[in-house]
Specification:
- With 382 residues, this protein is an alpha+beta fold.
- The chain folds into three domains: 6-46, no CATH class; 58-212, Jelly Rolls, CATH 2.60.120.10; 233-366, Jelly Rolls.
- It has helices spanning 6-11, 22-33, 43-46, 62-75, 179-184, 207-212, 236-251, 353-358, and strands at residues 58-60, 86-88, 105-111, 116-122, 126-129, 136-140, 143-147, 152-155, 161-165, 171-177, 190-192, 233-234, 262-266, 281-287, 296-298, 302-308, 310-315, 318-323, 327-330, 336-340, 345-351, 364-366.
- It has a six-stranded antiparallel beta sheet. It has a six-stranded antiparallel beta sheet with strand order 2-3-10-5-8-12.
- The structure holds 2,5-dihydroxybenzoic acid and fe (ii) ion.
- 2,5-dihydroxybenzoic acid binds at residues 84, 86, 107, 109, 122, 126, 161, 175, 177.
């Protein structure tokens, strides 16, 4: 049997296959010679009844990330060429590539006191989320943006950006980008910027916030909708207040929370109410002490980062205790549940949902709420 064609061998395990014979084997060799593959041997893999992601659910501990980032701070300079001291999560199902999921990059970035990361731009869309620390300004197209605990910051594609640490303490934060998606799409462009950031001032608020970060108010001078949000920083005080208010409303018997004990807000583009970046969705969630969320599946992948508190994250048949800074990758269509411990649990989440929504490939199923929606039957995103 050592001379049997690889197509025949692969077909042996698959259902609905023709009876093996020398003639069939010759046919399969013909396919191979002509670089052809029949559907009937591949259909289980290519057209499964539900998504079968190669990515797996995985938890990374912030304490370990930080330890290794600090060590990188001792040993690895930041400069032109390498560009960033960023260390990416590599999903165990994705062959060692620096991909948290097939579409999402998630990395810890680390800057030593008084250190600079050089200016560059790329078509990949980026955000930063600050789980602890402060003292770095990221300068986005000449606008200096302070980075502080709890802040969510945007660097939309093709904006020049460099970071500089103005404090005597090191700073680490989470970077999220659509690098794996852009890589798979063969759609990446990159350019070096000037050697120095052009504005080294250190304002508490960026010009983008002065113009745009006033609830419900847009500048009359602004043109129409922009593909990415014009707000460079969403400050923790606003996010925190929004979550606290949802839970206060729930306590008073009014609607607003996602489900009992679970408040959540989505960061949005104020010019159109949509997601902050064309490829990335970002949200902040708060669970009351002891709250447990309904199991939820969604097409597309996501990454959670605990911001505050302790709890347990369950994805499929895996479960992890998590604490501030810990990260969990959730593959497409895996059922996930969050549970808060004795304290409230705050979590940041980002996902590739905008891609799937725009392609009408998005489905969600929540335990106790029936089946996932069929393609073409989704309502408008809310
Ligand atoms: O800070 O500009 O984690 O360009 C990966 C690529 C961070 C950044 C990353 C980047 C950056
Ligand atoms: Fe960058």
């Amino acid at each position: 049997m050592t001379t049997v064609s690889p197509v025949t061998l692969r077909a042996l395990d698959a259902p609905g296959q023709p009876t093996p014979s020398a003639d069939l084997d010759a046919l399969y060799r013909g396919f191979e010679r002509e670089l052809l593959v029949p559907l009937w041997t591949e259909i289980g893999d290519l057209m499964p009844t539900t998504p079968t992601p190669r990515a797996t659910a995985h938890r990374w501990r912030w304490s370990e990330l930080l330890r290794l980032a600090r060590r990188s701070g001792d040993l690895v300079p930041v400069g032109r060429g390498g560009e960033r001291r960023a260390i990416a999560l590599a999903n165990p199902g994705l062959g060692g590539r620096p991909f948290a999921t097939p579409t999402l990059w998630a990395a810890i970035q680390y800057l030593n006191p008084r250190e600079d990361a050089p200016v560059h731009r790329h078509t990949q869309h980026a955000f930063r989320f600050v789980v602890e620390g402060e003292g770095v300004w990221t300068v986005v197209d000449g606008d200096p943006v302070a980075m502080r605990r709890g802040d969510f910051l945007l660097t939309p594609g093709w904006r020049f950006h460099g970071h500089h640490n103005r404090s005597d303490a090191p700073m680490a934060w989470l970077d999220g980008l659509d690098i794996p998606f852009a890589h798979a799409m063969d759609a990446t462009f990159f350019e070096f910027g000037p050697d120095e950031v052009d504005d080294r001032s250190t304002p508490a608020r960026s010009r983008s916030e002065q113009l745009w970060a006033h609830p419900g108010l847009r500048p009359v001078s602004s043109p129409g909708p922009s593909v990415s949000s014009p707000i460079a920083a969403y400050r923790w005080e606003h996010t925190d207040a929004a979550l606290a208010d949802q839970l206060a409303l729930e306590s008073a018997g009014h609607p607003g929370v996602v489900e009992p004990g679970h408040a959540a807000v989505r960061f949005t583009n104020p010019t159109d109410g949509g997601d902050v970046l064309p490829t990335l969705r970002a949200e902040m969630h708060r669970l009351r002490p002891g709250a447990v969320t309904a199991a939820r599946r969604e097409v597309g992948s996501s990454v959670w980062q605990v911001f505050d508190g302790e709890g347990r994250v369950t994805v499929g048949d895996r479960a992890w205790d998590v604490t501030a800074g810990d990260l969990v990758a959730v593959p497409s269509w895996a059922a996930s549940t969050l549970a808060a411990g004795d304290r409230a649990l705050d979590l940041f989440r980002f996902s590739d949902t905008p891609i799937y929504e725009r392609l009408h490939a998005h489905r969600v199923a929540v335990a106790g709420q029936g089946q996932g929606k069929a393609p073409g039957q989704e309502g408008t995103a809310t």
